[in-house]
Amino acid sequence: MAAPEEPELSQAQTEKLLQFQDLTGLESIDQCRRTLEQHNWNIEAAVQDRLNEEEGVPSVFNPPPSRPLQVNTTDHRVYSYIVSRPQPRGLLGWSYYLIMLPFRFTYYTLLDIFRFALRFVRPDPRGRVTDPVGDVVSFIRSFEEKYGRSHPVFYQGAYSQALNDAKRELRYLLVYLHGDDHQDTDEFCRSTLCTEEVVTFVNTRMLFWACSTSKPEGYRVSQALRENTYPFLAMIMLKDRKMTVVGRLEGLIQPEDFVSQLTFIMEANQTYLMSERLEREERSQTQVLRQQQDEAYQASLRADQEKDRKKREEEEQRRQEEEKVRQCALAEERRRRTLEEEKERKSECLPPEPLTDDPESVKIVFKLPNDTRVERRFLFGQSLTVIYDFLFSLKESPEKFQIVTNFPRRVLPCLPTEEQPNPPTLKEAGLSRSEVLFVQDLTDD
After folding, report:
1. Looking at the domain assignment, is residue 374 inside a domain?
2. Where does residue 148 fall: left (phi above 0), alpha (psi -120 to 50 degrees), or beta otherwise?
3. Residue 186: which H helix or E strand, with range?
4. Are 48 and 163 within one domain?
5. Cα(224)–Cα(71) distance, integer angstroms
6. Can you give the residue range of the structural domain that contains 182?
7. Which Gene Ontology biological process is one annotated for this entry (predicted)?
8. What sign for the dihedral angle of Cα 222, 227, 228, 233?
9. Total Cβ atoms within 10 A of residue 150
């Protein structure tokens, strides 16, 4: 059984199909069409989801809430900067450290056991992300309530949206995971993150996304980036056509180290962004060139169609004119045949010509419009219609005519009218035994 034919595409859909194929590099036109149909021919959504599918980045148009976020973290060239807690100094410091060590070990061990057992009783609510944007906005609000409004500009959106924006704009994305219960979090936020130096540096150089790991969205990002300690920062950028973690900062870092380490990471990876910008410019130029070629093709196609239309119109007009001429010729031929038949009928209906010595006969010489002369005899008692019918039956006579006497000049009433339904006889018309009558052509009139 043959498969049903797919409906034809409109011109706008065809242009979107070619543009989508150019942007994604797919060779199969059927696959491009299926993808666009799945997105209701929204080319932006289709292209974004296609790129996300290739690179493992969640879609901003239809983000899957339960799928773990995928960012390339396996690059062995990731720069890591970990700040360890200072070691105890002096006898007093070591004594305090050794005394507290059993208590800390017991506390964290029991806490881990408690959390592990709690998972069987009540699953971790952070494992289900229902409102990622709400989680981020809630964290920003609580952060400002505790540390004030002097901080880097937070990206107010989901992590997947921040990734997509950074990818689209070819910018660095700095991700900060906030550990509420960690002992260094409060000092880092007050002494490093909210300082004027750090605020100015972050706001002018990159996008900044942050969330607490106590929120489902922050917890999901934590599972993807796998931090070791807090405070935790990750620098992400588009590298080799994938959103990749290129730097990690962990631990309590000071403002000057914060700036210098991020500057080092950015300078070390600047060539990748430059390469991607060049590729995008090349793709854009290719797209513009293809669009110009398509426009030129469409213009040429429209010109050819217009030329064909005019040619068809001229041919149709010529055909109509030829048909009109043919119909006129046929009508003229029919009229001529009808006229000949009428002449023959009139000729057959004419009474016989009287003899020369008949005292009632009248000899009439007719002078035709072509200067030929015709002579015939008629009877005085015959109607003038007989004269008209005789002349009408002649091949040389015009189709319409009237008979005129020479002197005095008058038109003989040969045909019946409303006032005179019965034309007079030759005698009543005052004709003598020998007459010369003129035939006047009325065909043009």
Report:
1. yes
2. left
3. helix 185-188
4. no
5. 7
6. 78-284
7. ERAD pathway
8. negative
9. 11
Average pLDDT over residues 40-65: 59
Compute the distance between CA of residue 238 and CA of residue 245 in angstroms, rounded to an integer: 9
pLDDT of residue 6: 60
Question: Does residue 1 fall inside a structural domain?
Answer: no
State pLDDT tens for residues 255-314: 999 999 999 999 999 988 888 888 888 888 888 888 898 898 999 999 999 999 999 999
- C-alpha closest to that of 273 among 200, 175, 168: 168
Q: Is 212:44 a contact under the CB 8 Å cutoff?
A: no
For residue 29, the domain's CATH number is: 1.10.8.10
210 phi, psi to nearest 5 deg: -145, 150
Task: Compute the distance between CA of residue 284 and CA of residue 290 in angstroms, rounded to an integer.
Answer: 10
Helices 43-55 and 29-38, axial angle in degrees (round to 10): 110
Among 237, 260, 284, identify where a domain stops.
284
Q: In whole angstroms, what is the distance from residue 434 CA to residue 362 CA?
A: 6
pTM: 0.50
Place of tokens 């020369």: 356
Are residues 51 and 152 located together in one domain of the fold?
no
The identity of residue 231, as a single letter, is P
361-367 sheet: strands from edge to edge: 373-379, 361-367, 434-441, 401-405
Q: What is the DSSP letter of 380?
A: T
d(C-alpha 92, C-alpha 151), whole Å: 38
- Partners of 172 in beta bridges: 206
Residue found under tokens 């004709």: 431
Backbone region of residue 251 per phi and psi (left: phi > 0; alpha: psi in -120 to 50; beta: other values): left
Beta carbons of 43 and 29 less than 8 angstroms apart = no
Q: Is the domain of 259 the same as that of 174?
A: yes
Judge if the upstream peptide bond of residue 231 is cis by omega within 30 degrees of 0: yes
Domain-located, residue 38? yes
Decide if 327 is inside a domain.
Answer: no
Last residue of a domain, one of 284, 315, 334: 284
